[in-house]
Every structure is written in C-alpha cells, then in structure tokens.
Amino acid sequence: MSIKVAILGFGTVGSSVARILCDLKPQGVELTHIFNRSVARKRAEWVPSTVTWTESFDEVLASDANVIVELVGGLDPAGEWVRRALEAGKSAVTGNKKLIAQHGVELDRIARAHGASLFYGAAVAGGIPVIPGLQHGLAGDQVTRLEGILNGTCNYILSRMEEGAQFADVLKDAQSLGYAEANPSEDVDGYDARAKLVILSRIALRADLAVEDIPVRTITSIAAIDFEYAGELSCTIRQISRAETRGGALLATVGPMLVPKNSPLAWSRGTENMVLVGGKYGGDVVFSGHGAGGHPTAVAVVSDLITLAHGSGNIDLPSRKAEVSGEFLLRHYIRFVVKDRPGIVGEIAGALAGEQINIHALFQRPGFGKDSLPFVVTVEPCTNSALKRALAKISSAEWLAEPPLDLQILEPEEPLK
Ligand SMILES: NC(=O)C1=CN([C@@H]2O[C@H](COP(=O)(O)OP(=O)(O)OC[C@H]3O[C@@H](n4cnc5c(N)ncnc54)[C@H](OP(=O)(O)O)[C@@H]3O)[C@@H](O)[C@H]2O)C=CC1
Ligand SMILES: N[C@@H](CC=O)C(=O)O
C-alpha cells in the first residue's frame, strides 16, 4: 500500500518529520502537503518542489492526501481537523497527547467507522516505542503497574537542577530547544505527563480514566535545598507518573517524588523518559530513551507512517471506565521553612500524631538564618489525605515562613492493611 501524507503544523516536530521523510524516503510514503498558518515564512529549500504548501485545511481535505499528520497541538482546532479527516476516510497520525487523552476513544471509534486508522505513537515518551510496545509486544500480558518519567522538560529541568542550575534558566533552555509545550505550565505543573499516563493506562491497564481525576503536583516548588536533603536520604528528585491496579481499585498520581539513587529512574538525565511496566505473567519490562525533541518524536511519527504504509492497523484493546484514587501508601518527605523558635518540632509531631503518622527522621542543616530556616521531616508510610489533614492543622502557624513542601518517596509500597 502507498500513502500520501499531509503534515499539519510545521513546527519543531512537523519540520523534523518532513526532514526524515525527505532524507529516508521510506518506501510507500510520499509527502504531498504541508499546512501551517502564515505558511510563507515556513518554506524550507530542502522540501521537494512537488510538495504543496498551504494555509487551507479545506485544501488538504479535498486533496488526494490519504493520511494527515497532526502536529499543531492543543484541543482546538487540531481536534476538529483530525475528526474531519477521519470522517472523510483519511487516516491520522498525531503526537497530540492532550487530544488523545481526552478524545482518543471517540476518535478511534470514528476512524474504525470510516475505514481509517488513528496512530499516536509519538503522544507518549517521544521516540521511545512504548505505545506500539504495549499494543503489540505486551498485549499478551496482564499489566498491573506503570511507573515512570513521562515528561522530558521536567526531567531536563530536575536533572540540571540536581547539578546546581536554576529552575528559571533551565526552563528557558528547554523552551528554546523545543522540548517544552507551547504553554510550559503543561509540563511543569504535570498536565502533560498526566495526559500521557491516561493514554498508557488505557492501553496497558485497559482502564479509561478521566484526566482531571488524577492528582497532579507541580515541580515549581522544588528548590536547591531539596536536592541537598534528598541526597542525605540517598535520593534525587524526579517527576514520576504512576498508575496501578490494586484489588478492584486503580491508583494513579503525577508529581515530583524522591527517587532512590539506586533506582534506574534516578539515572535518567536530560530529556530521557523511562517507563517501567509490571505484568502479571511477564514480570517487569523497561522502555527508555529520549522523550522530547523534534527528531526523537519525529521518529515515532515516521514509524507510524511506515506501519500504515504496510497496511497494518492497531489491535483493538477495549478499555473500561475506571475511578481513580491517589491514595498510595508511601513514606513522605516534608520540607518546612520556618521562623525559628522553640517548640516548632513538637507542634509538627503533634499534628502528625493526630493522624497516626509516625516520624521516620528529621534533618536540619546548619548555616541558615533564623528567619527562614529550612528543615525536613520524613514520615513512615501514610496516605496523602491523612498527611494533608495533619498539615492543615498547622497551616496557619505564625512560625511558617512558607507553606510546607510534601513529596512522596518512591519505594516498594507497604501492603495495605
Ligand atoms: N516538541 C516535542 O518534544 C514533542 C511534541 N509533541 C506534540 O507534538 C505536537 C507539536 O509539538 P511541537 O512541534 O513541539 O509544537 P510547535 O509549536 O513547535 O509547532 C506547532 C506548529 O503548528 C502551527 N500552528 C499552531 N496553531 C496553528 C493553527 N491554528 N493553524 C495553523 N498552524 C498552527 C505552529 O505555527 P506557528 O509557527 O505560527 O506557531 C507551528 O508551526 C504537540 O501536540 C506536542 O504536544 C509530542 C512529543 C514531543
Ligand atoms: N513537552 C513534552 C514534549 C513531549 O511530549 C515533554 O517535555 O515531554
């Protein structure tokens, strides 16, 4: 089978897809159209003259291109364009995790109803073949657990902060290198990773989760001092996404966590992503590689195009709607910054004891002024809600110089009692 391809969106990923198609010329894949707003400024001399540059989606829809590659991003108007293309019987390939997390099930239904296919291998973990790996390679297992690093921008920021860089500087670098989303809050506040976790949960756990049900935490509250205290616990800090089935329940969460330095997750640097998949029959499988950036992501898009050109469709793995709980039972790291005076630790211990939460350790580095003194309390495994109630009891204490930072510590979880 031969496919004619129209790329929608000639930005970081779209231009890399065009570049790879022009360089590799994969058999049966012909680039025919490039669509972008104000397209004249996008023209590149390395694109063959046979390719039509256009600002009109209707022109693409009316053309003989039978596959659209949506790399515009966001829900609107990109979602409407994908829907209209599928309804016209054209297949679609996209890297748009926001769209697939929220409307993937419905778009897949539309594709099947019109004899088309919908591929989104680039939507999770950039160039790492985790989606085809789950859809094909692990379809024969019963996956019960997903855990990993799903956002390259956060990993880039946190691994650079670990080396001493400042948050604002590294975020700027991530934006200029094309890793960050158009609105970087999607990355640093956890929404991008959450959308990816929803997609992976659908494929691997066969659970259809509502995006907004998964608790997310921002990485913007992490400070240099947290890497120092994390180091004293033989840990570093990474944005971790987790989902697992436990009994009848589904637990899921996204946010910065303390990761033991001997965990493979701690070794990931820069834009590397890593996904650990736990299967009932096959045990653990790890996927890793570059999760952001034009070329790695474009590899996933071009691989989807080659799969389509070979006439292969997706395996239908039905998912069921599932309710989410964020109540993992884990140790926590709590960093306080206080206006120092006697009795503070006693008040904290009292608030924790009121929720049956036991202190595990207490760290206080010398060398800080009394007006803004950071110290850390770690606690034995407890749920988020119990800890939240305990911290609420001291939230208006006059000695708090800033709200406490609470991070889960990633380690094998104690069995639920
Ligand atoms: N960058 C990455 O590392 C990865 C990105 N993705 C996903 O891939 C998609 C594209 O990302 P990326 O290439 O980084 O984004 P960019 O912002 O670099 O590219 C988007 C392109 O779409 C164009 N565009 C935006 N809105 C419109 C519109 N309304 N009409 C016509 N053209 C429009 C933009 O034009 P203009 O230049 O005028 O803004 C730009 O050329 C997103 O869904 C993203 O989440 C997935 C994995 C990794
Ligand atoms: N902004 C995203 C890009 C890839 O999905 C990220 O940083 O991971």
Automatic annotation (TrEMBL):
Recorded GO MF terms? homoserine dehydrogenase activity; NADP binding
Any idea which UniProt keywords this protein has?
Amino-acid biosynthesis, Methionine biosynthesis, NADP, Oxidoreductase, Threonine biosynthesis
Q: Which CDD domains match?
A: ACT_HSDH-Hom
Listed Pfam families: ACT, Homoserine_dh, NAD_binding_3
The catalytic activity, as recorded, is: L-homoserine + NADP(+) = L-aspartate 4-semialdehyde + NADPH + H(+)
Pathway recorded for this protein: Amino-acid biosynthesis; L-methionine biosynthesis via de novo pathway; L-homoserine from L-aspartate: step 3/3; Amino-acid biosynthesis; L-threonine biosynthesis; L-threonine from L-aspartate: step 3/5
Locate the ACT domain: which residues?
A: 333-412
Top-level taxon of origin? Bacteria
Q: Biological process GO terms, please?
A: methionine biosynthetic process; threonine biosynthetic process
Enzyme class, spelled out: oxidoreductase
Under SUPFAM superfamilies, the record lists: ACT-like (SSF55021), Glyceraldehyde-3-phosphate dehydrogenase-like, C-terminal domain (SSF55347), NAD(P)-binding Rossmann-fold domains (SSF51735)
Q: What is its EC number?
A: 1.1.1.3
NCBIfam families assigned to the protein according to its UniProt record, in alphabetical order: PRK06349.1
Q: Which family does it belong to?
A: Belongs to the homoserine dehydrogenase family.
Supply the name of the protein. Answer: Homoserine dehydrogenase
